[in-house]
Amino acid sequence: MKYEKAQNILPDGIIKIIQKYTDGGYIYIPRKNENKKSWGENTETKRYLKARDKEIFNKYSSGVIVKILSKQYFLTESSIRRIIRNQRNYD
């Protein structure tokens, strides 16, 4: 998301109305519902985390203990347990 100057994209009348509510402040204008994207849709993050979680589950299934996985992936033991629990539900 990048900032745009209001005077470059909005008519003067709308700017004056907005200035009644916030003079010089920052406001966020949300996307229309039909234009919203789900989390991770624009990046590889979602795919990366899915692959990582599957890898964690496979290692756990092969006998690697939670404490070791926690250190390998720099996650808390409770996060590792949550990932394992979620992966069991997918299979």
Automatic annotation (TrEMBL):
The region annotated as signal peptide is none
Q: Which InterPro entries match?
A: c-mor_Regulatory_Protein, Homeodomain-like_sf, Mor_transcription_activator, YraL-like
**Start and end of every Mor transcription activator domain?**
17-89
Task: Extract the coiled-coil ranges from the record.
Answer: none
Tell me the PANTHER family matching this sequence. MU-LIKE PROPHAGE FLUMU PROTEIN C
Protein name (Swiss-Prot/TrEMBL): Mor transcription activator domain-containing protein
The scientific name of the source species is Clostridium gelidum
